[in-house]
């Protein structure tokens, strides 16, 4: 594949932009400057790629990413009042049609998955899949046995005709609970807690299916592992 086409595939812009990057001597492949935009490379042979003195991860197929979303970031390509979560990813990814699997509210933190594989996004977003999502909620008022019982047995949400129940609820301390849900209604955890006569002060998603956020720092991202993808059948 000609190098400029390979750069296009990697998300570095259109034909003209990629040719100029190469002709200006701004592209290094495997540690060597390449200024011929028609130079031939196989993707499998590229161990390292540097553009304008900045190392870039080589994209070798569809992207499957895990991001630790900080507070005050919007899950949107066109944010209104806060920066977009996509600004936390490498610039080149902005040209690769990456979208989030579902959304997290501006003030909600934790695990969010992103991909440019439409089948993957649909499979994990579909309510029919019943993918478990684990949230840690900090409450305004102390958690009582009555609140736990309501969340487990089901509560009615405004504008919904049926009850919604958590798959499991565990109390961590006086003001902290961990809930597992398999549905994804708008503001579901916050609305469920409110319907049980309390209020969520902070919300953090710890896991989605078999994928756990772990110790990844806020604002950082990583690729999903082959084992994590296999757990979802990919």
From TrEMBL:
Keywords: Isomerase, RNA-binding
Sequence ranges assigned to domain RNA-binding S4 in this UniProt record: 6-37
UniProt-listed InterPro entries: PsdUridine_s_RsuA/RluB/E/F_cat, PsdUridine_synth_cat_dom_sf, PsdUridine_synth_RsuA/RluA, PsdUridine_synth_RsuA/RluB/E/F, PsdUridine_synth_RsuA/RluB_CS, RsuA_PseudoU_synthase, S4_RNA-bd, S4_RNA-bd_sf
Domain annotation Pseudouridine synthase RsuA/RluA-like: ranges: 64-195
The keyword Isomerase is annotated on this UniProt entry: yes
RNA-binding in keyword set: yes
EC numbers, comma separated: 5.4.99.-
Catalysed transformations (reactions): uridine(516) in 16S rRNA = pseudouridine(516) in 16S rRNA
NCBIfam families: pseudouridine synthase (TIGR00093)
Alphabetical list of PANTHER family matching this protein: PSEUDOURIDINE SYNTHASE, PSEUDOURIDINE SYNTHASE FAMILY PROTEIN-RELATED
Protein family (similarity comment): Belongs to the pseudouridine synthase RsuA family.
Summary of the function given for this chain in its UniProt record: Responsible for synthesis of pseudouridine from uracil-516 in 16S ribosomal RNA.
Protein name as it appears in the record: Pseudouridine synthase
Organism name: Chromobacterium indicum
